[in-house]
Amino acid sequence: MKARFLILLWAMLLALAGLPAIAADAVPTEADRVQQKRAIELEENLRCLVCQNQTIADSNAELAQDLRRQVREQIAQGRTDAEIISFMVQRYGDFVLYKPPVKTTTLLLWFGPALLLLGAGVALFRNVRTRARKHVPTSELTGEERARATRLLNDAPGKDSA
Amino acid sequence: MNRFILPLGIFIVLAAFLAVGLRLNPREVPSPLVDKPVPAFKLAQLAQPEMEFTQKDMLGQVWLLNVWASWCVSCREEHPILVDLAKSRVVPVIGLNYKDKPQEAKAWLKQFGDPYMLSVMDQDGRVGIDYGVYGVPETFVIDRAGVVRYKQIGPVTREALEGKILPLVRQLQKS
């Protein structure tokens, strides 16, 4: 009886020993994970204006750190992605977006490459067609030319004359 | 001859675009704040931290907001120009002391001169974000109604002051 009690006590102590380890780390909830993912996605689409070819997720400039803090705070306040994006655009302009919006001033940027490809395709098509239609003269040799060619071939220097 | 005209034309257009592109300064991002009301702030003053100052206190006047910091190297470049401007008393300049330590900011003003009507402290840079600040120094020209009319990115040079800022200030002061 006594032995059994001791084993039980020992088992309880062991179980308790594990507790502080669990208590020390707050397990991230599903909501935290979703927010974290949203923050990273937003940060990867916002330009750091100090080091212009980096996103605020990549950059370690002070401004990037401040903007990351803004993103996270606003997510915590329950703002939507669109609201956070428009907060940034109001302050820093469209340039802060890594993906520029489609509007009249950016039409050429968005559709220029496709237009260029289309133009090149049309030009190539027309070029090939006119070439195909053109009559290519067949080069038949006249009797005289043939005789001259044979003569030249036979008399060519270096030809084995044995 | 004819077949060279098209490639030559394309080359000239491309060269013209590249030449213009090379001359643009990519650091100068046009501010979306121009022609918009100046963002609101309420900050403690550098000289008297117990006193607060807001953009509303400047309503009815044309004024400049100059973003500066003691750690900012190009601020030293523009500083003598601002000191001269302050002596001429043409337009009041408010300093936004951006992400700075008060003691260092005060020491800096003592060393180089204080051209500001007053400076306010934006220690965590939040007001700076509202103003779209990304490269100190920056200077805003604000009209009587509290609308931003111009933003100078980088140091105020003599050319920028004489060519753009002062003519604009005079014009705004007349209206």
Folded structure, characterized:
The complex is a heterodimer of chains A (162) and B (175). With 162 residues, chain A is mostly helical. Chain A has seven helices and no strands. Chain A is elongated, with a radius of gyration of 39 Å. The model of chain A has no long low-confidence stretch (mean pLDDT 83). Chain B is an alpha/beta fold and 175 residues long. Helix content of chain B is 41%, strand content 19%. Chain B has five helices and seven strands, in the order αβββαβαβαββα. A five-stranded mixed sheet of chain B has the order 5-4-3-6-7. In chain B, strands 1-2 form a two-stranded antiparallel ribbon. The longest helix of chain B has 22 residues, at 2-23. The chains are: A mainly alpha (162), B alpha/beta (175). Chains A and B meet through helix 4 and helix 5 of A and helix 4 of B.
Helices and strands, with pairings:
The complex is a heterodimer of chains A (162) and B (175).
Chain A: H1 2-17, H2 19-24, H3 30-43, H4 62-76, H5 81-92, H6 107-133, H7 143-155
Chain B: H1 2-23, E1 42-44, E2 52-54, E3 63-68, H2 73-88, E4 93-98, H3 102-112, E5 118-122, H4 126-130, E6 138-142, E7 148-153, H5 158-174
